Amino acid sequence: MPFFRDPAKPQPVEFHAEILLGAPPRGSRLGVSLQRRHTMKEAKDMKNRLGIFRRRNESPGGHPPSKLDKVPKSLKPTLEEALKWGESLEKLLQHKYGLAAFRAFLRTEFSEENLEFWLACEDYKKIKSQSKMASKAKKIFAEYIAIQSCKEVNLDSYTRDHTKENMQNITRSCFDLAQRRIYGLMEKDSYPRFLRSELYLDLINQKKPSPVL
């Protein structure tokens, strides 16, 4: 009767080799137990790494969520001013305290880069020197437009490619399309949620000062 080798079972030579190397035989109770411990240890290490990653992302840049940047109390809006913010995103961004409040809100949604890009474009259009404009344009593109950039904003492929082409002939308007897209995204998406946020509601629910008799 011919001898057939069962690959599922450890052969004598392999069995002894595993013992000599200090490893338990495959399929043995000890081997299964150690393998289970190793798997559990890997899972625990992965969980710890994910925990660290999650904690880092809960406070991006070290900023506590829902906290405004240091803005002088003198800039705190009156009730009338805060109510005007509800008329348009433009009026919100025109007010220094409103801008800081909106930035703080976007930080809690991990989309602060949209506002930063929009502000960078506003500053860019004020540059008069052509050499400084070229340098600033490359920096903005590398930071916000390029694929997998550190603060990449959410743009459609057409707008991204159009902006990339503009880098070949840098002008004051080379980011206009991308800026409009991001402004529209904030206006349609983040701005309505800001108006429903606790941060904004606290401002418009402040009591009016009693009139002096």
Automatic annotation (TrEMBL):
InterPro entries: RGS (IPR016137), RGS_RGS3 (IPR034951), RGS_sf (IPR036305), RGS_subdom1/3 (IPR024066), RGS_subdomain_2 (IPR044926). Gene3D superfamilies: 1.10.196.10, Regulator of G-protein Signalling 4, domain 2 (1.10.167.10). Keywords: Methylation, Nucleus, Phosphoprotein, Signal transduction inhibitor, Ubl conjugation. Its main location: nucleus. GO terms for cellular component: cytoplasm; nucleus; plasma membrane. GO terms for biological process: negative regulation of signal transduction. Residues 45-73 are annotated as: Disordered. The keyword Phosphoprotein applies. It is found in: Nucleus. Residues 88-204 form the RGS domain. It holds the Pfam family RGS. Down-regulates signaling from heterotrimeric G-proteins by increasing the GTPase activity of the alpha subunits, thereby driving them into their inactive GDP-bound form. Down-regulates G-protein-mediated release of inositol phosphates and activation of MAP kinases. PANTHER family: REGULATOR OF G-PROTEIN SIGNALING 3. This is Regulator of G-protein signaling 3. It comes from Eublepharis macularius (Leopard gecko). The lineage of its organism: Eukaryota, Metazoa, Chordata, Craniata, Vertebrata.
